[in-house]
Amino acid sequence: MRRSPVSVLGAVSRTARSAVAPSPYTAASFSSHTSTPCFSVTSPLSPHSLFSPCSSSSGISASSRTVLRASLRGIHSSTVASKKNTTFLLSDPGEGIAEVEVLQWHVEVGQTVEEFDTIAELQSDKATVEIKSPFDGVVTKIYWKVGDMAQVGEPLLDFEVEDDVLTADAPAPVAPEASVAAAAPAVSASAAKSSHTPATLGGKPLATPAVRRIARENDVDLNLVPGSGLRGRILVEDIQRYLESGGASADATPPPSVAHQPVVAAAEDRVVTVRGIQRAMVKSMTAAAAVPHLGFSDEINMNALVELRKQLRPELEKQGIRMSYMPFFLKAVSLALQEYPILNSHVNQDASEMVYKASHNIGVAMDTPSGLLVPNIKNVQNLSLPQISQELLRLQAAGQAGKLSMNDLTGGTFTLSNIGAIGGTYASPILSLPEVAIGAIGKLQLLPRFDADGNVIPTHIINFSWSADHRVIDGATIARFSQLMSDYLTQPGKMLMAMK
After folding, report:
1. DSSP at 435
2. Which residue did the predictor score with more confidence, 185 or 154?
3. Is 40 helix (H, G, I), strand (E, B) or coil?
4. Catalytic residue IDs
5. Range with lowest mean pLDDT among 99-103, 191-195, 487-491
6. Dmax of the chain from CA atoms?
7. Single pTM value for the model
8. How far is Cα 460 from Cα 303, in angstroms, rounded to an integer?
């Protein structure tokens, strides 16, 4: 925090204000249970405290130090502020996370940073977190190296700051913005120097955290990689071309060809550590494998819904809404869950207790650059079809950009996987515990079927595959639920009548 010069005549009034003026940063909470003043930051993405810097000051009370410092400042405005070290701690971000991987440091020991500067990028099982500096100061110590697994509750780095910064009117550190970063496999190769200088922002090449991670794993200096993205942004493909060229930029003059048989290097095996989102998948799928799954599949006649969507499309396009079939599926599932609420429940580990969820937070499995992610649309039971469509488009865009928040990824009660967007008709979806049911949607096909008079007619057919926790869900329940949802899609007028 920067402070303007204060005159001697204003010392008394400033002393009074420093003792009572509330902080403009309401995210911070202060504690004086010990001789060391501490404050913690609550992220807007999670109710848990994420990162908490704590002063390493002496045993005098925080309130006494505040008044004393204010009084001393009033004696002479040119007094040089004293310096003090403060430690930045990694606190529990929730969701059972005990450690995070250090992806990148944006600072080094001895570097001066300003408030709100990005100082580090950390990767948890679910998201990449950008850590911002809570105040102006100098970095005096960094506790972890890139690639280390930083433990919750341990220090991240130390700052030297002005003593005044640590008083109760200091700003809380900026809550880290959680986003899901794309994770890609490393490519084994060496990087050589290039004369090309890519576009930069604040002295750094323009690149996403995922691209920076790939560059780090392959010992590539991003300053040497030509960027082909918007405003010179470096893409994954740029690194790939850089590595394939032997570390030379795309515009470098190729060496003269040599008239002899090229030597083909033998392929080598690579050992890759399973980390981040992929490791989270290992944990969740291992847990789900211990649960007996009940499978059920059916096909649905989509002729009426195809026609309805065709009729609605011009009006929706006037409103700037692109309506796929997915909002209809989500709404039909929600209406069916109102009749079979047991399928919208959570079960504990030993299946001794179930929690019937009031909200229909329906997850949609997505294939993103990070891998499989399942953000969920909150309160589908209260949303209209256009509202569901808009929220679905937002989640899809955020997933592709690596910007899904922790709130988007947590709190789900039921899941749909649109595997048919890639291909295939039937699937055996795996439960996302503690949910008790999940559905997979096949591709829409035009197939021959018999009508009521025995005539063969072209019919739009889509297949649904369901899995349920057979410890608490029986086959009859999932079959009746599937039939009711099928009725809503086969007869969309019935679905419109059931909507509130």
Report:
1. B
2. 154
3. strand
4. 470, 474
5. 191-195
6. 100
7. 0.55
8. 5
| Contacts (Cβ under 8 Å, ≥6 apart) of 3 | 164
442, containing H or E segment: none
Angle at 220 between CA 218 and CA 222, to 5 degrees: 140
What's the chain's length in residues?
Answer: 500
| Mode of pairing for the β-strands spanning 354-356 and 345-347 | antiparallel
pLDDT digits (tens, 9 = 90+) for 184-213: 333 334 333 333 445 554 456 777 767 887
| Cα gap 290→246, rounded to integer Å | 47
Give the separation between CA 482 and CA 439, rounded to whole angstroms: 10
CA-wise closest residue to 325 among 460, 459, 134: 460
Nearest to 469 by CA among 286, 347, 339: 347
Nearest to 115 by CA among 55, 161, 51: 161
Residue 409: per-residue pLDDT: 92
Among candidates 429, 421, 428, 423, which has minimal Cα distance to 399? 421
Tens of pLDDT, residue by residue over 107-137, are: 999 999 887 788 888 877 667 778 888 778 8
DSSP string, 53-79: EEE---SS-HHHHHHHHHHHHHH-TTP
DSSP-derived secondary structure for 196-253? ----EETTEE-B-HHHHHHHHHTT--GGGSPP-SGGG-B-HHHHHHHHHTTS--TTSP
State the Cα–Cα distance between residues 294 and 258, nearest whole angstrom.
63
Conformational region of residue 157, where left means phi above 0, alpha means psi within -120 to 50, and beta covers everything else: beta
CB of 325 closer than 8 Å to CB of 444: yes
CA 472 vs CA 195, 290, 292, 436, 466: distances in Å = 64, 14, 10, 8, 15
For residue 425, what is the DSSP state?
S
Q: Cα separation of 131 and 116, whole Å?
A: 9
CA distances from 385 to 126, 332, 333, 394 (A): 29, 10, 13, 14
